[in-house]
């Protein structure tokens, strides 16, 4: 079988639980590069044993962060790059669709949609999510955020890729299913909320802020203090999250609490500045 001419970049740290399932589904792609941030578990060994190339990344606190760094420094065989996390698992339908879509000369990138799992359950309702994680390396890169003095995240999490030209959509979904426990989920989002609070204050002080419509809505609601409640009502009732049972309720509550964390951390940081 001919391999699909795509370089897949997996950004990881301590992903021994998720990585085997992720890598096992990527066999049709020609190049797999695992960019590791000094894992202390068996992540690097698992990746090498399964045939992936492993590159170690140590962030110096400045631009670029992990994904842009990989674009600039890894030996990538192909023009098309697919960025995945270790808890994102492709399907055969997704791989086949991607193989076909990258031959279309009218597009330089594609948005990927995800099928979310939470606490082991497949969720059919609530807010879904997507990201533009497949693009030509000569036509895209992740946005640069001026965060040298305050960021503690070594990888682009909330930064969006800037892609020249048309961006299409892959209809087949990628499964998002983390095999780690709930404590990991909570700790991860606690770190993310700190970053978002810092970013919010930075944007408030910036005169040249370029925000998407979703960002304008999010930050506008954050300013009013209504974002946690609006998110919960939207996810659980308007988007029918209650039909997913307890897991649907738990996820809506955790996500609304995530926005509450951002809100309170913004208030705390403002007090420190005054």
Explain briefly what this protein structure is.
The chain has 274 residues and is α/β, with parallel strands linked by helices. Helices cover 39% and strands 23% of the residues. It contains eight helices and eleven strands.
Annotate the secondary structure layout.
Layout: E1 4-12, H1 19-24, E2 29-36, H2 43-49, E3 53-56, H3 66-73, E4 80-85, E5 88-89, H4 92-101, E6 109-118, E7 121-122, E8 130-136, E9 140-142, E10 161-163, E11 167-176, H5 182-205, H6 213-224, H7 227-238, H8 245-273
Parallel strand pairs: 1-2, 1-4, 2-3, 6-11
Antiparallel strand pairs: 4-8, 5-11, 6-7, 6-8, 9-10
Helix pairs in contact: 5-8, 7-8
Written overview of the protein:
The protein has helices at 19-24, 43-49, 66-73, 92-101, 182-205, 213-224, 227-238, 245-273; strands spanning 4-12, 29-36, 53-56, 80-85, 88-89, 109-118, 121-122, 130-136, 140-142, 161-163, 167-176. It has 274 residues and is of the alpha/beta class. It has 2 domains: 4-176, Spore Coat Polysaccharide Biosynthesis Protein SpsA, Chain A; 182-273, no CATH class. The strands form 2 sheets. Strands 1, 2, 3, 4, 5, 6, 7, 8 and 11 form a 9-stranded mixed beta sheet that branches. The protein is globular. The relative contact order is 0.13. The model has no long low-confidence stretch (mean pLDDT 94).
